[in-house]
Amino acid sequence: MSLWTSLEPASVTVDPGSRATVRLRVRNTGDVVDEYRFEPVGPTAPWTTVEPQTLRLYPGTTGTVELTFAPPRTPDATAGPNPYAVRITPTEHPEAVTVPEGNVTVTPFTEVRAELVPPTVKGRFRGRPRLAIDNIGNTKLTASLSGSDNGDRLSYELQPANVQIEPGRAVFVNTTLRPRQIIWFGSKEEQRYHLAVRRSGAQALEVEGTFVQRGFLPRWLATALSLSLALAIAFVMIWLAYKPQVTSSAGEKLAEAGVSTLAPSPSATPSAPALVPTPTAPAVVEAPATSEAPASGGGSGDGGGSESKAPVKPKQETAADAVNKLAARSDGRHICYRAYVADKGWQDPVCDGAIAGTTGKNLAIKALNIATARTGGVTGNAAHVVGGWLTGDKWSKASDGVNMYMGSSKPAVAAMEGFTIKTLEDSVCQNAHVKDRGWLGNGCTKPGDWIYGGSPMEQKLQLEAVRFTV
Question: Does the keyword Disulfide bond apply (predicted)?
């Protein structure tokens, strides 16, 4: 070993959003001039910098580099002790790599964000808003929930009433609001209320909403019903008081007709009675029985017996269909993808750097369908404007030529704000277009590493278009 190292100090504590510095002393114990390259490794590497990155030392001399730790104030900076290391590679002897290790302790911080979805609900007997709670701190959040309003006019049912949320995750609380008094007649009334997120040793976070209580029957309808009932009662009373007397003279007419018919004629003689023909009932002619034609068109006729069929809707092409066709025509690595655009549905797939989604139309992407060829497969996850990483660390994964989906096309799920993606045996490049920011620039990974694309997590801007290459 031709190198001696020392960390001063080996352990350090830093607050998220601030900086801490550690000195690394290096001595060349060999007999030749050598140049050393420094590279941070481990889980703290994304927010660790080394200055200078290279150091040239003569035999027997000592140099110093500074390690600066700047953990972000996000859930990515896990609270507690975090090991760190620096890989030192000599230029003259690259096989003699040295990796000094230390420990950096990140202090915990708590930050909670809550939002009512929707902020205003309407109903006659109940309202059902949802409370979205985001833990954007770096420690687990434990909180209880409660509701209140002026005058105690509402009752509250919250499921669940207590939550535990991991850093960087979110939960939805189903809330049922019930008015203590029902408005049977009259116009609607607005009642403001508050839902509180209470944590031990911290001030409660309150979110304000509005419950619009509607009347069971509108005032004009009650007036119309009352007037109709009064008119009906008045009509019945008048009818009973002035009911007309109806008589019929049909019986008298029939009696007179019978007497004149049966009485003997004064001029008739007994020896020559009149012959009166006996009336006979007219013959009833029955219609010939007929059989009904079959409803399904099986008989003869000009209409024929064939039944019309609806045209079959063609199957929509997926990203896997497109990448397999492209791989059959052109050898090499390929990536094809398509976007589910809000209010528009799935677009046709595009490949190798073409634009999926829309720009300048304020239409958000809700889901992505991706497939690759000759990259060993692809895996990814989607972050949403409301809810963040809904599936947590459960990434979607697919092998070459197979569809991989991230996000959701369901109406209840919010639009995407970003995504993570990687290919298993190769690098992947992405460029994301987000609302009010435009294209954010192309970024690529090392083979097998993942990359994030889209809106900064704290800004919550909707994703509108993407480009991918491999």
Answer: no
